[in-house]
Amino acid sequence: MVRRQLRVLSILDVARTQLYHFMAIVIAGMGFFTDAYDLFSVSLVIDLISYQYYKGQMGSGVKAAISSIALCGAVPGQLVFGWLGDKMGRKRIYGVTLVLMVVTSLASGLSFSKRLGKNVVTVLCFFRFWLGVSIGGDYPLSATIMSEYANKRRRGAFIAAVFAMQGFGNLAAGIVGMVVSAAFMNSRKSNADFVWRIVLMFGAVPATLTYYWRMKMPETARYTALVAKDAKKVASDMSSVLHMHIVPENEAVDELARQDQYGLFSVEFLRRHGVHLLGTSACWLALDITFYSLNLFMKDFFTTVGLLKLHEGEDEPFKRMIRITAQHTTLALGFSLPGYFFSVAFVDRIGRVRIQLLGFAMMSAFILCLAIPYDQWRTGEHNKYGFAVIYGLITFFANFGPNTTTFIIPAEIFPARLRSTCHGISGAFGKIGAIIGVFAFVYAQRHSHTRSMLFALVGCNLVGLVFTLLLPESKGKALEEVTGEMEEPPQPEQAAAAVAAAECVHVVPV
């Protein structure tokens, strides 16, 4: 094992917050903006697809397929691209996922067929599956890149800031849906076909805009030093990033190359990190069952309690689309985004594990507030706006809780050579949970068991809470210290030298 931390990594750990940190947040975050936009925008346009091709009578199975097919693609995407990120480098694979995302976003809006109806939906599902593959690949790569670029004092906030772009993507889906629908308000109703296509294709825009900057970003120092073991390359790359001269540590890196490093399927990995991988995977699985059930079927809940009229807009598809997207946008602004902001502000103060425990507990409490009096909510005996507020509080504590921390923790607690792979495995279990949630909700809705489904979501949160106890706290620690790659802490003189070097860097104070 590594007996001491490389000096270049020590400098990265103690460097004050500066411009390259913000550049990394924006570049990695725009991928997440696109991911969220693509995943959640489809739930907003299903009504229009139903109106255009099924005369408003789309079956629940078709709705489930359209809603979940991208999630199905995300599972192999996270596994394959996570593994490739460790084998071929974060930067190289990052570019591949972005190109695939742009192409499949455009193709989703260009889903045509000579026969209407199910054939168009089949083509749409085909392209959204591959879109899901690219989205899945973006998860482990974005998290790993940001964790390996960040300093240890604000690493959690930086990774949370990348993930917070999911909230802006969710918000953008509502705004774009409203704007495009309003633009076609006074046109022929057959133009609904253009509306849903434009909304889906817009997802290619932010991904395209960041491609150039993604390709200019250098490979992370930890991959180059600890995985590729290229001392000259890491010194050159980080000298450019930090605007200082860094001497290559050839002997230290050569020593790394001679060490026997355990693999994913080894007994040593099982002993050191097996429980951790179980914890991150189980927590993400439990969280996404709840998170995607509530987010993708928000319209159905709001229709049930009277916030949306069941038959409203059968002949006015654009008006109904505007109402759906307006409520989606209001919840995003009032509850979802503040949850992300709270995570950014407090994750390095409170700690990842505590925030995750708080989130699971509060989500359980508020879901019970919906489930216990659900029949009263449904029959209008309670204030329907109270239902919306409680619903919003669930999303707040999901984002100021496990939705953010399940993304952060796997990027910090596994060794560099397995970090992207293990994050991909954890995320894949999350997307499996999302698929379970989608189909379970469709089944519950079809058999009038929605209240029972809400109680099941409470059980999922409690499972996540229990498995959170298996995870180590990584707040304020160097990555190599958390993962066990650095068995000896830096000597005082080495730490002082690193601090002195970092203080010479041109910084942007925060």
TrEMBL record:
Where does this protein reside within or beyond the cell?
A: Membrane
Task: Name the UniProt key words of this record, in alphabetical order.
Answer: Membrane, Phosphate transport, Symport, Transmembrane, Transmembrane helix, Transport
Spell out where the chain crosses the membrane: 20-40, 60-81, 93-113, 119-137, 158-182, 194-213, 329-347, 353-373, 385-404, 424-444, 453-471
User: Per UniProt, what is the membrane topology?
Assistant: Multi-pass membrane protein
Kindly give the CDD domains that the UniProt entry links to this protein: MFS_PhT
Q: Name one GO cellular component term.
A: membrane
The residues covered by the Major facilitator superfamily (MFS) profile domain are 24-476
Q: Which InterPro entries match?
A: MFS_dom (IPR020846), MFS_sugar_transport-like (IPR005828), MFS_trans_sf (IPR036259)
* Gene3D superfamilies reported in the protein's UniProt record: MFS general substrate transporter like domains
A Pfam family (short name) is Sugar_tr
Q: What is this protein called?
A: H(+)/Pi cotransporter
Q: Which organism is it from?
A: Sorghum bicolor
